[in-house]
C-alpha cells in the first residue's frame, strides 16, 4: 500500500495521460513514482433479512411506574409512565422516556 505524501491517505492507481499513476483519493496528489502497481479495492456488501416488529399501540405501559409530578406538555395532565434507557455514551446520563397517563403523548428528558 502506498500513502499520500501530503495528507497520508491511501493512494490508488489510475490511468492518467495514458500512464498508470498513484493518485490520492482525498487531496488529488499524483505521485511521481514510476514503479506503479495496479490497485484493486474489493467491497463485499451483505444484505440482511432481519424482521422488524412494528408496535402500533403500546399496551405494556402499565408495567412502568407512574410519576404523578410530571406534567404532560400536550394536555397538562399530571401523571406519566416513565422508564430510563442509556441511549448515548456510558459517561452520559441516561434518557428518561415518559408517556402521559391520559392522552398517551410520549416525550423524553435528557
Structure characterization notes:
0% of the residues lie in helices and 33% in strands. It has 110 residues and is mostly beta strands. It has two domains: 1-45, no CATH class; 61-109, Single Sheet (N-terminal domain of TfIIb). Strand 1 and strand 2 (19-24) form a beta hairpin. The chain is elongated and about 75 Å long. The model has no long low-confidence stretch (mean pLDDT 83).
Brief description of this entry?
The protein has 110 residues and is mainly β. The protein has strands at residues 11-16, 19-24, 66-71, 78-85, 95-100, 106-109. The strands form 2 sheets. A 4-stranded antiparallel sheet has the order 3-4-5-6, with no helix packed on it. Strands 1-2 form a two-stranded antiparallel sheet.
What gyration radius follows from the Cα positions, in whole Å? 28 Å
For the report, how would you describe the main beta sheet? 4 strands, antiparallel
The amount of beta strand, in percent, is 25-35%
Determine the structural class based on helices, strands and strand pairing.
mainly beta
Amino acid at each position: 500500500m502506498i500513502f499520500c505524501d501530503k495528507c497520508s491517505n491511501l493512494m490508488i492507481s489510475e490511468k492518467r495521460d495514458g500512464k498508470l499513476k498513484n493518485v490520492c483519493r482525498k487531496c488529488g496528489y499524483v505521485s511521481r513514482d514510476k514503479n506503479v502497481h495496479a490497485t484493486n479495492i474489493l467491497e463485499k456488501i451483505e444484505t440482511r433479512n432481519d424482521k422488524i416488529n412494528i408496535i402500533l399501540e403500546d399496551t405494556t405501559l402499565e408495567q412502568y411506574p407512574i410519576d404523578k409530578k410530571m406534567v404532560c406538555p400536550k394536555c397538562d395532565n399530571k401523571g406519566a409512565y416513565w422508564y430510563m434507557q442509556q441511549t448515548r455514551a456510558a459517561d452520559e446520563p441516561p434518557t428518561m422516556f415518559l408517556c402521559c397517563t391520559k392522552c398517551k403523548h410520549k416525550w423524553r428528558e435528557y
